[in-house]
C-alpha cells in the first residue's frame, strides 16, 4: 500500500512544526502540503486531494468547521482528523456528523497522535484490499479505536460512540428512554450500553423515586 498523503492546516507556527515533526516519525505517511489560513487551505486541498487532512478549528479567516462543510459539499475525497482546542459539545457533535474520523484536543502527546494515525492507516489498508465489506468491517472502520474486543458480546463500539455522543450535550441527567428518542435507537439497546458504561464508571446513574412504582434511572457523564 502506498504512503498516505497528508495536508496540515494550522495557523500557529510552533504547533505546525510540532505536528509536522510528529508526522515525520510516521513512516506510512507523507506530508504534501501545509497552510496557515482557511481559504488557502481549501484551494490547496481541492487541488492536491490528500488522503488525510489534519485540520485545526480556529483559523484567522474561516473556521475549520467551515472548511469541513465546504469539502463535504464539493465531495472532495479526503478524510479529516480535527486538531483543536475546542471542547464544547455542539462543535464536537457537528464535526462528527460531518464525518471526521477523529478529534484530537490540544495539547496532546505523540502517543495520542500516533494512535490516531495508526488506527486510520490500519483500517484504510484493510478496506482498500476488500471488494465488499462485512458489517464487522464497517463497524471497525467507524469505531476505529481498536478496543472493540474489550466490549461484551452483543455490544459494538460504533453504537457505544453514538450513545456517548448523545450524552455529551445533555446538561442534566437523562433517562434511557429520552436518550433513545434523541439518538434514534431502541430504549432497550440504549439502556444496555448505558448500564455497561456505568459498570466501567464512565456514566453516573442517579435513582429518582416517584410517588408510586419503581424508581427511574437517570444517566449522565462523569
Report the mean per-residue pLDDT as an integer: 84
Low-confidence stretches: 144-149
Tell me the major beta sheet: 5 strands, parallel
CATH level 1 class label of the largest domain: Alpha Beta
Description:
The protein is an alpha/beta fold and 222 residues long. The chain folds into 2 domains: 139 residues, 3-Layer(aba) Sandwich (Rossmann fold); 75 residues, Winged helix-like DNA-binding domain superfamily/Winged helix DNA-binding domain (Arc Repressor Mutant, subunit A, Orthogonal Bundle). The protein is built from 9 helices and 7 strands, in the order βαβαβαβαβαααααββ. It has a 5-stranded parallel beta sheet, sandwiched between helices. Strands 6-7 form a two-stranded antiparallel sheet. β6 and β7 form a beta hairpin.
How is the secondary structure organized here?
Blueprint: E1 4-9, H1 13-24, E2 29-35, H2 38-48, E3 52-55, H3 64-73, E4 79-84, H4 89-97, E5 102-105, H5 110-128, H6 135-143, H7 157-168, H8 176-183, H9 187-199, E6 203-208, E7 216-221
Helix pairs in contact: 2-3, 6-7, 7-8, 8-9
Amino acid at each position: 500500500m502506498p504512503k498516505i498523503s497528508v495536508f496540515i492546516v494550522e495557523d500557529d507556527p510552533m504547533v505546525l512544526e510540532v505536528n509536522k515533526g510528529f508526522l515525520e516519525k510516521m513512516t506510512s505517511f507523507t506530508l504534501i502540503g501545509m497552510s496557515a489560513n482557511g481559504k488557502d487551505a481549501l484551494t490547496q486541498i481541492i487541488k492536491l486531494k490528500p488522503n488525510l487532512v489534519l485540520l485545526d478549528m480556529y483559523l484567522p479567516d474561516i473556521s475549520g468547521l467551515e472548511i469541513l462543510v465546504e469539502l463535504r459539499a464539493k465531495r472532495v475525497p479526503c478524510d479529516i482528523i480535527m486538531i483543536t482546542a475546542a471542547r464544547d459539545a455542539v462543535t464536537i457533535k457537528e464535526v462528527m456528523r460531518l464525518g471526521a474520523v477523529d478529534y484530537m484536543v490540544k495539547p496532546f502527546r505523540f502517543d495520542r497522535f500516533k494512535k490516531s494515525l495508526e488506527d486510520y492507516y490500519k483500517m484504510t489498508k484493510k478496506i482498500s484490499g476488500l471488494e465488499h465489506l462485512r458489517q464487522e468491517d464497517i463497524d471497525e472502520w467507524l469505531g476505529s479505536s481498536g478496543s472493540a474486543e474489550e466490549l461484551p458480546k452483543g455490544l459494538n463500539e460504533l453504537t457505544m460512540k453514538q450513545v456517548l455522543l448523545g450524552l455529551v450535550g445533555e446538561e442534566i441527567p437523562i433517562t434511557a428512554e429520552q436518550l433513545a428518542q434523541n439518538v434514534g435507537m431502541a430504549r432497550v439497546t440504549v439502556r444496555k450500553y448505558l448500564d455497561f458504561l456505568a459498570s466501567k464508571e464512565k456514566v453516573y446513574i442517579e435513582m429518582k423515586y416517584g410517588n408510586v412504582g419503581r424508581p427511574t434511572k437517570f444517566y449522565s457523564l462523569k
